[in-house]
Write a structure and sequence with these properties.
The chain is of the alpha/beta class. Helix content is about 35%, strand content about 15%. The strands form 2 sheets. It has a 6-stranded parallel beta sheet. A 5-stranded parallel beta sheet has the order 9-8-7-10-11, with helices on both faces. Helix 1 packs parallel to helix 3 and helix 1 packs across helix 11. It is globular. The model has no long low-confidence stretch (mean pLDDT about 95).
Amino acid sequence: MGKVLFICGSLNQTTIMHEISRHLSEFDCYFTPYYGDGLIHVLNNYGMLDFTVMGGRFRQQTDDYLKSAGGRIDYRGASNDYDLVVTCQDLIIQKNIRKKKVVLVQEGMTDPENFIYRLVKRFKLPRYLASTAATGLSDAYEKFCVASEGYREHFIGKGVKPEKIAVTGIPNFDNAIQYLDNRFPYRGYVLVATSDTRETFKLDNREKFLRNAVSIANGRQLIFKLHPNEKVERSTREINRHAPDAVIFSDGDINPMIANCDVLITQYSSVSFIGLALGKEVYSYFDLDMLRRLLPIQNGGISARRIAEVCRGYLH
């Protein structure tokens, strides 16, 4: 029986990996939280990378989810010789998978291509410095499964080899209509989904963002959903200063909140795609026409099966 290692990360990445594994039940599937080597491994052990998917709250959510889902865990993929590795990120290609067959799966929206991204590309600096803007640039995989034809063109434009891209759709973003059936108690409000830009050392004029959200709401009910990686106390204090009547959630599934809102305001969040797919009025730091071109295909939730078929091609 072939062995498959799924490298997880955030809760979104982990649930994507787990969903794909459900369609590869004939193989021996194992999971690991995201990891690095050398200095990155050392820094992570000292808690200095707790703002990333390798530590802190992200890592705890991954561990909790895998435990509750009954996933077999092989930390760092150290206990087995794997026939295939499936990962949601190639910003780091870990030493023990460099000679393995790898399938890369797009996790969601990628970061803007800022000056750091251009420096990384020009001087071949470590890709993780550019965050998800550098997704797909390792070329260390057999196939890269992406969300839409728009993203296929997007990644080709960055230098990804066209023959390595498969347009499969991506789990968690391929069936937005399912979120309309929910028990979230609020309806008809303005939802604000904040980002963890400050926690990941990026610029964020939060005061301006909040004033703009209040202006867009124009007296309507405001509900804030904080990014899972945000400092809750600080963000709550800021929101209360500008919108004292707003409802604030630091936990919970944002998808039903999007399904029930009238307006969705985001910064750099992949959840913009759920709003657009459901026909909501969406505000984003990204150009909306570009987001509509990139919108993940809505295929009724069969992306995981399609990705599993791609994986199976490297296991027989």
